[in-house]
Amino acid sequence: MPPVDVLVRPAAPPDRVIRYGDHPEQVIDVRSVTDDPDAPVVILLHGGFWLARYDRLHTRPMADELARHGYVVCTPEYRRLGQPGGGHPGTFDDVAAAVDLILGAPPATGAVVLVGHSAGGQLALWAAMRGRLPAGSRWHVDPPNHGTVSGVVALAAVSDLARAIEVGIGRGICADLLGGRMELLAETDPARLLPFGPGVAVLVHGTEDAIVPIEISRGFAVRDKSVRRVEAVGAGHFDLIDPLSVAWPAVLRAIRSVAAPGLGRSTHRGDADHRGDADPAPDGPPAS
């Protein structure tokens, strides 16, 4: 099965859609199959190099499967490159607004985990670390007064924007996100905002990723030893969002380790689980 199959695979529509602004892209899909008011919540940020041609629809199979495992899944859309307002600052404005709306009125009272793939991984890490932005930043939040995030699971994330620009990931698209203004990295690059907080960060990356090389995640974790890594052996870029891939159980375990940290296998901080399949705990959140 080609790895891009998941980008076009049919999936059910969301249970409901929430608007967080007037622009057509400012919406959040919500999926849930549980009646548990204490269910954990996943805020799922899609990737696609922040480009308009890639939207949240390609994460529907992943969102459906996470919902089946007991999570309430919120998938925000956001303005992207090629659309009016996309890129800096609109993309960041939208992600901040969507995450704040969910945290301000979460659809369930369980742990909230930010999950993002590729460019969405960059946005998920950034959204969780906004408390580290300067007080004068338009995106700064005061953590004590902000909604609680248990942590981030970043999948094949563009976690170091400066390094991604330097090595040419995305053929220049990473620089396009900032309109070529490298001074904006100080407020937009997760690697510039380390050490990570709040909660815990888990970076899951396939060893055979030809789009965002695994060295990006390795370098991010070297900068902050509190960051955990899972290396999915043999997995490519899209395997991490594909419920039919052999890498998918490792993704589920990573999310569970953040949503219910007391139930998973303990992992030495800064170390990689090079097998990507070493957690013997069952997938998904604990049964109620």
UniProtKB/TrEMBL annotation:
Molecular-function annotations in GO: hydrolase activity
Bias kind Basic and acidic residues: ranges: 268-278
BD-FAE-like domain boundaries: 37-220
TM helices/strands, residue ranges: none
InterPro entries: AB_hydrolase_fold (IPR029058), BD-FAE-like_dom (IPR049492), GDXG_lipolytic_enzyme (IPR050300)
Region (Disordered), start-end ranges: 263-288
Alphabetical UniProt keywords: Hydrolase
PANTHER family assigned: AB HYDROLASE SUPERFAMILY PROTEIN C4A8.06C, KYNURENINE FORMAMIDASE
Protein name: Lipase
Protein source organism: Sphaerimonospora thailandensis
